[in-house]
C-alpha cells in the first residue's frame, strides 16, 4: 500500500503568518491594556470620591449637631480608612502640615508631596487624582480636593448645639471658654457671637488607595494576552496548513455525504421497522417504520428485545420468529422479527440489529375472515330455518293463551300456560334476530344530531337503568355535532351495548358514554364503558360470533348483529376488557 506523504511546511509560509498576525496581536494587546487601565482608574476614582464625600457629610453632621472637634474628626478618619483598598486618609493645611491622619502618629508632620496640587483652590468642588510613588517604592492612587465640611456661609450660620433649633450663639465669655476648650484647627468653622464666620480655612483632604489589585489585574491580562497571542499564532499556522488539505477532505466528505444520505433514505423509508442496539443495550437508531409500530418515544429496548439479545450473545447467530410485545398495560403487538448480531472486524459483537413487521393487521384480517365465514354459514342456515319455526310457534302461543284463560281457576295450570307463552315469545325473539341477521341489511344514511342520538338511545333503557340504580355519565366532546349515518341502525347498536353493560353491572354501577374527535377529520369515536364484571381474555376473540354468550338468558346474537351493522356502516368496533374491572366498546364511526 502506498503511504500518503504529508506536505512539508515552508519557513517562508510561517514567516508570512507571523508578519500578518503580529501587528494584529500587538494592537489587541495594547488596546486591552489601555481599557483595563481606564477601568481600574475609574473604579479607584469613584471609590475615592465616595470616601471623601461621605467623610465630609459625616463631618458636617457631627459639627452641626454634636459640636465635633479635631479629636472626633480624627477618630472618624481612622474608622473610614479601615475599608478595603484604603491605605490612608488625611487632612492637611495649605503649608503641608498634617492636621488629621488615619495613622495618628503622622499628625503634626509635614506632607512633602504638595507639588502639583495648586489647582485645588480654583474650584472647591473639583476632585483631583494622581498616581504617586511612595518612599517604599509602592504606587498609591491619591484622590484629593479642598476640604469643605461646610457648604456655604448660609449653612455655616446654622450650626446646631445638641440638636436645638436655631443658630448656635455664645456670649463673649462663653465663646472664649468654648474656643479655649477645643483649641484645634476645626475652630475656623465656628460662628462668632455676632453671627459672623471667619474665612474658611484652606485645608485639603487626601485619600490614598492601593493599586495592588490593579497591578495584579494588569499582570494577569498581560500574561493572558501573551498566551493568546501564541495560541492564535499556532491556530493560524494550523488553519493555513488545513487549507491545503481542505480540498481533498471536501471531496471525500461530499462522496461520504452522498452515500450516507442514500443509505439513510433507504433505511428511513423501508416498509419494515429497523432498530439497532449497541452492546450496552442502548438504542442507537430507529427508522420511521419502527417509530410507527413501536411508538415515537422509543428510548429503551423492550424486555422481549433483551431476551433475544441474550440468546444471540450465546448463539452469535441471527434469529427469526414471531414475538408478542407488551406495548402497553392493555395492549399487545405481534411482530415478525429477524434479529442479527452486528460483528466487528475481529468477529466480536458490537451491537444488534432488529428488522420486523407488524402482524397485528394480518391477524385481525384473519380473525375477520374467519368470523365472516361463520356468519355467512349461519346466515344461510338461518334463512332456511327461521320461516319453518315461526308458523308452529304462533299455533303453540295461541293454544297456550287459550288454556291459560280456560283454566284461570287452577293456579298450577295457569302458571304452566304463562311459562309456555313466555318461552314461545323468547323463541320468537331469537327467530326474529336470526332473520334480521340472515337477510340483507338496508342502510339509509342521513343527517343525524349526535347528541339527540345518544339521548334517545339512553331513553330506551331508562327503566332498566333505574331498576339497578346505575349512574349514567355522558361526555360529548366533538366539533362534529351533525354526522351523516343511519341513525336507526346506530340506535340499535347502542341499545345492544347498553343491554350488555346493564347485565354486567351490579347495583349502583357506572355506565359511561363518550363521544370525541379522532386524529382523522372523517371519523368520530364513540366509547361505551362500564365498570362491571368484565370479559375473560379467552372470550374476547369470540364475543362477536353468533350464539356465543356468557349469560344463561342471552341468545348470543346481539353483538353479532352489532358487528354486522358496524361493517355495513363502514365503521370499526373493538373491545377492551379485563375480568372484574370493566368493559369498553370503542366505535370509530365515519361522519
Quick description:
By secondary structure, this protein is an alpha+beta fold.
Question: Features of this protein?
Answer:
Beta-Lactamase, alpha+beta, 17 strands, elongated, 13 helices, disordered N terminus, 4 domains, 591 residues, 5-stranded antiparallel sheet
Commentary on this structure:
- The chain is of the alpha+beta class and 591 residues long.
- It has 4 domains: 38-211, Beta-Lactamase (2-Layer Sandwich); 270-358, Beta-Lactamase (2-Layer Sandwich), CATH 3.30.450; 364-438; 446-590, Histidine kinase-like ATPase, C-terminal domain (Heat Shock Protein 90), CATH 3.30.565.10.
- It is built from 13 helices and 17 strands.
- The chain has helices at 11-66, 70-80, 153-156, 172-182, 212-269, 288-294, 303-315, 360-406, 411-438, 450-459, 462-467, 487-504, 558-568; strands spanning 86-93, 98-101, 128-133, 139-146, 203-210, 273-278, 283-286, 319-328, 331-343, 349-358, 446-449, 471-477, 482-485, 510-517, 523-530, 572-578, 582-590.
- It is elongated.
Amino acid at each position: 500500500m502506498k503511504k500518503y506523504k504529508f506536505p512539508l511546511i515552508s519557513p517562508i509560509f510561517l514567516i508570512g503568518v507571523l508578519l500578518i498576525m503580529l501587528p494584529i496581536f500587538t494592537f489587541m494587546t495594547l488596546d486591552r491594556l489601555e481599557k483595563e487601565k481606564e477601568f481600574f482608574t475609574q473604579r479607584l476614582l469613584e471609590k475615592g470620591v465616595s470616601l471623601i464625600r461621605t467623610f465630609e457629610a459625616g463631618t458636617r453632621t457631627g459639627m452641626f449637631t454634636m459640636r465635633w472637634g479635631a479629636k472626633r474628626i480624627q477618630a472618624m478618619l481612622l474608622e473610614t480608612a479601615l475599608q478595603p483598598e484604603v491605605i490612608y486618609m488625611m487632612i492637611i493645611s495649605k503649608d503641608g502640615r498634617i492636621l488629621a491622619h488615619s495613622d495618628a502618629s503622622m499628625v503634626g508632620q509635614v506632607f512633602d508631596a504638595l507639588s502639583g496640587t495648586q489647582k485645588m483652590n480654583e474650584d472647591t468642588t473639583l476632585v483631583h487624582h494622581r498616581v504617586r510613588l511612595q518612599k517604599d517604592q509602592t504606587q498609591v492612587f491619591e484622590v484629593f480636593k479642598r476640604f469643605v465640611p461646610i457648604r456655604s456661609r448660609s449653612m455655616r450660620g446654622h450650626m446646631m448645639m445638641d440638636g436645638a433649633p436655631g443658630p448656635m450663639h455664645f456670649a463673649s465669655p462663653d465663646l472664649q471658654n468654648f474656643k479655649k476648650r477645643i483649641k484645634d484647627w476645626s475652630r475656623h468653622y465656628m460662628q462668632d457671637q455676632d453671627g459672623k464666620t471667619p474665612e474658611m480655612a484652606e485645608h485639603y483632604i487626601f485619600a490614598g488607595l492601593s493599586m495592588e489589585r490593579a497591578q495584579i489585574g494588569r499582570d494577569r491580562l498581560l500574561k493572558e494576552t501573551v498566551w493568546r497571542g501564541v495560541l492564535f499564532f499556532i491556530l493560524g499556522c494550523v488553519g493555513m496548513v488545513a487549507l491545503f488539505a481542505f480540498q481533498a477532505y471536501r471531496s471525500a466528505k461530499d462522496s461520504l455525504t452522498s452515500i450516507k444520505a442514500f443509505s439513510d433514505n433507504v433505511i428511513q423509508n423501508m416498509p419494515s421497522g429497523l432498530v439497532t442496539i449497541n452492546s450496552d443495550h442502548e438504542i442507537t437508531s430507529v427508522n420511521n417504520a419502527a417509530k410507527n409500530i413501536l411508538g415515537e418515544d422509543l428510548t429503551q429496548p423492550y424486555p422481549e428485545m433483551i431476551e433475544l439479545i441474550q440468546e444471540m450473545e450465546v448463539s452469535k447467530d441471527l434469529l427469526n420468529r414471531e414475538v408478542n410485545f407488551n406495548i402497553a398495560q392493555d395492549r399487545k403487538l405481534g411482530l415478525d422479527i429477524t434479529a442479527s448480531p452486528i460483528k466487528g472486524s475481529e468477529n466480536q459483537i458490537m451491537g444488534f440489529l432488529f428488522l420486523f413487521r407488524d402482524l397485528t393487521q394480518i391477524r385481525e384480517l384473519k380473525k375477520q375472515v374467519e368470523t365472516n365465514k361463520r356468519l355467512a354459514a349461519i346466515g344461510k342456515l338461518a334463512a332456511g330455518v327461521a320461516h319453518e319455526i315461526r308458523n308452529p310457534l304462533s299455533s303453540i302461543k295461541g293454544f297456550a293463551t287459550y288454556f291459560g284463560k280456560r283454566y284461570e281457576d287452577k293456579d298450577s295450570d295457569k302458571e304452566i300456560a304463562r311459562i309456555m307463552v313466555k318461552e314461545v315469545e323468547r323463541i320468537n325473539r331469537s327467530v326474529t334476530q336470526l332473520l334480521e341477521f340472515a337477510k340483507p341489511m338496508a342502510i339509509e344514511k342521513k343527517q343525524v344530531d349526535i347528541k339527540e342520538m345518544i339521548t334517545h338511545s339512553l331513553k330506551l333503557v331508562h327503566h332498566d337503568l333505574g331498576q339497578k340504580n346505575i349512574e349514567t355519565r355522558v361526555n360529548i366532546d366533538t366539533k362534529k355535532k351533525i354526522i351523516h349515518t343511519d341513525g336507526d341502525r346506530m340506535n340499535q347498536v347502542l341499545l345492544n351495548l347498553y343491554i350488555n353493560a346493564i347485565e354486567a353491572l351490579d347495583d349502583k354501577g357506572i355506565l359511561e358514554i363518550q363521544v370525541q374527535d379522532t386524529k382523522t377529520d372523517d371519523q368520530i369515536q364513540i366509547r361505551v364503558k362500564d365498570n362491571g364484571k368484565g370479559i375473560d381474555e379467552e372470550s374476547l376473540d369470540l364475543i362477536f360470533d353468533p350464539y356465543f354468550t356468557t349469560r344463561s338468558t342471552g341468545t348470543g346474537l346481539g353483538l353479532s348483529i352489532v358487528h354486522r351493522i358496524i361493517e355495513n356502516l363502514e365503521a370499526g368496533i373493538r373491545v377492551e376488557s379485563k375480568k372484574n374491572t370493566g368493559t369498553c366498546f370503542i366505535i370509530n364511526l365515519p361522519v
